[in-house]
Every structure is written in C-alpha cells, then in structure tokens.
C-alpha cells in the first residue's frame, strides 16, 4: 500500500473516531482485533494501515501498552516538499518565495500574539546571531530565530508547515548561507535586520513587523547574491 494513498488518511480519521482517552490523557486506538471487527477489515490490512501511519508519524506503537495517536511531525510535510523538488514539480525558488510569504504573515501574528517569555527568547537568539563568532552556531541561531517567530504566531498549522518547509530549505541553501555568514559586510547588514525585527515585534504593531521582515528579505537576497558572485569571481581568478 502506498504511503501517499488517500485511503490511508481516510482510515486514520475512522480510527480516530473509535479511539479512547488513556489514563495519561493520550488518545489510544483499540486493539487490532477490535479494529478488524469494527471496520470489517482483514487483520493484514489493518496492520498495513497502522504500519504506514506509524512511518508517517501519526501513531506510536508501544509494546505492552497499545497504539497511541500523535500529532504529525514536520517530517511529514518535509517529505512531500523533498519529493516535489526531486520530481521537478517545484523549484528552490518556489520554496524560497513560499517561505517569504509565510514569514511576512508569521511576523505580524507574532507581534500581536506573543507572550513576554517568548519575546525574551527571540531577543536572546538575536543576540546570539549578532555576537556568535562560529559560522555554524550563528546559522543555527538564525534558524531558531525564525522558528521562534513561528511559535510566537501561536498557530499550530502554520508552525507545522513552516518547520517542514524551512527544514528542506536549510538543506538545499546551506552553502549559500555559509558564504553569507562568512562575509563580514553581509553579516553586519543581516544582523541589523534581525535586530529591527525584534524591535518591531516589541511594539505589537503588525505594520512595523511586516516592514521589518520586508527589509530583512530584501537585505538577505541582496547579500546572498553578492556573496555568491564574489565566490564565482574568486574561483575564476584561481
């Protein structure tokens, strides 16, 4: 049975309808035999469905305890983006454009909906971006900064999609980001935009937050292209 067979998700919805709350507050599915009897399915079919759902992260099976429902992990979204890239259905430019659209909306929601401890973490990550002397550490702080904004937006659907999308971009754009981080000029300019985002979010103004993110992406795109061209020029000279 294919992992992308729509009937799998139909079965998941059916299984959810007969799940029960366990002692620890998690939703627990009935035993395989009960699922077979309730839905009139062969035991092999039930096991196949459960196996696919487990691989997709929708359920967790514990020996001796039973089968429990999980919130889907971002890897579920990541898988589809990666396959779409490999099949040339979408391009890296499409993903970057989608991410920018998401983040422009995310930062506005973050400005309005955030709690103070979340803002403190955002500010701490910004400081780490600005002051880190290690390229990879600075990049990780950058990733965490943007994910923190998605958390502050307080929309689980947006967070799952954002995490799946950004994980793919993290892989395919890693070298470009390393080059930008290694340039002192590019780093200084992008640092300024991260600081501006934090200050805008503090005001709880949607408009100021959107403007700060617009400037961030404009600067980022300019500096990544500048770093890439510099690398090409250096390669030609060698």
UniProtKB/TrEMBL annotation:
Coiled-coil stretches are: none
* The HTH gntR-type domain, residue ranges: 2-72
Q: Which Gene3D superfamilies match?
A: GntR ligand-binding domain-like, Winged helix-like DNA-binding domain superfamily/Winged helix DNA-binding domain
CDD domains per the record?
A: WHTH_GntR
Family matches, as PROSITE patterns: HTH_GNTR
Its domain of life? Bacteria
Q: Which GO terms describe its molecular function?
A: DNA binding; DNA-binding transcription factor activity
**Keywords from the named record:** DNA-binding, Transcription, Transcription regulation
What PANTHER family does the annotation carry? TRANSCRIPTIONAL REGULATOR, GNTR FAMILY, UXU OPERON TRANSCRIPTIONAL REGULATOR
Q: Write down what this protein is called.
A: HTH gntR-type domain-containing protein
